[in-house]
């Protein structure tokens, strides 16, 4: 259900931007999702497919890029890619910081602005 | 003609804007807002009941009860003579800022302290800013100690963590020192309370903290205030 809320946000934000850009139909949306957000790509696709009919997203493709969890030690710079957040450096025991894995953003979308110039 | 629009925009932007409006409204009213987040069954409602018993006489307290479908929790709290608004999220697993804004319209008058009992879930509520002053994550001894590592976002964004059902500690293999250490590693500044709403142990200290947060907010807001 988390994913339904996220897709609602995505649709609101893209719809607003599309209106500003004179875009009447969305062809694709690219979403970047870090592992820490616990958003499941399958459920995101499912939510998108179920919420898009009757909207400017009807027939559009949702592309999801998953980013793994990457941590870096604040002291010695050691990088790890653990399954779960693990807070202390395996090499020196200092605190790790998150380099990647908490992303949740719309990278871009493609749409049709209704002007000719292609044989669609 | 097909065009590509680069956004680079974080999801939940719309929610963030409404949360800012809520925050401004709470600041103007001098209301301390506490957002309670936990898994189902961690004891949010029981802690709230005990908190109302201790603080209800001295402060005007409002409660927003988030629930996916039922009104059971709201009924329990309403029995304590507190103003309660129930928000049914109709299947959505978290409260968002606009639900809180609508609930506040319904609650009406200004309150000293507003508790928001979020929908039982450790994932989504962490993502949605409601305009609160502080998020409080509850973790019950009965749930086991692996929650901080599994759901780091909520424990990182919390201003306090309450470990509930401490009366069960002797009967579980809950590693209190280990879990507390993990929480502090995620979030060094976080306040950690260990309490049992059933026996009352530790509840006083939690209430004192809420009261201090309220007084600090009032002191910071100076100009506006009660009456
Ligand atoms: Zn290191």
From TrEMBL, chain A:
Residues that bind Ni(2+): 2
Gene Ontology MF terms: nickel cation binding; zinc ion binding
Record-listed Zn(2+) binding positions: 73, 76, 89, 92
Coiled coil: none
Gene Ontology biological process: protein maturation
Domain of life: Bacteria
Gene3D superfamilies reported in the protein's UniProt record: 3.30.2320.80
Keywords, in A-Z order: Metal-binding, Nickel, Zinc
Free-text function comment from the UniProt entry: Involved in the maturation of [NiFe] hydrogenases. Required for nickel insertion into the metal center of the hydrogenase.
Alphabetized PANTHER family for the sequence: HYDROGENASE MATURATION FACTOR HYPA (PTHR34535)
Family in the record: Belongs to the HypA/HybF family.
UniProt-recorded name of the protein: Hydrogenase maturation factor HypA
Organism annotation: Thermodesulfitimonas autotrophica
Automatic annotation (TrEMBL), chain B:
One Pfam family, short name: cobW
InterPro entries registered for this protein in UniProt: CobW/HypB/UreG_nucleotide-bd, Hyd_mat_HypB, P-loop_NTPase
Keyword Hydrolase: yes
One GO MF term attached to the UniProt entry: zinc ion binding
Keywords assigned: GTP-binding, Hydrolase, Metal-binding, Nickel, Nucleotide-binding, Zinc
Keyword flag GTP-binding: yes
Family from the record: Belongs to the SIMIBI class G3E GTPase family. HypB/HupM subfamily.
Name of the protein in its database record: Hydrogenase nickel incorporation protein HypB
Lineage: Bacteria, Bacillati, Bacillota, Clostridia, Thermoanaerobacterales
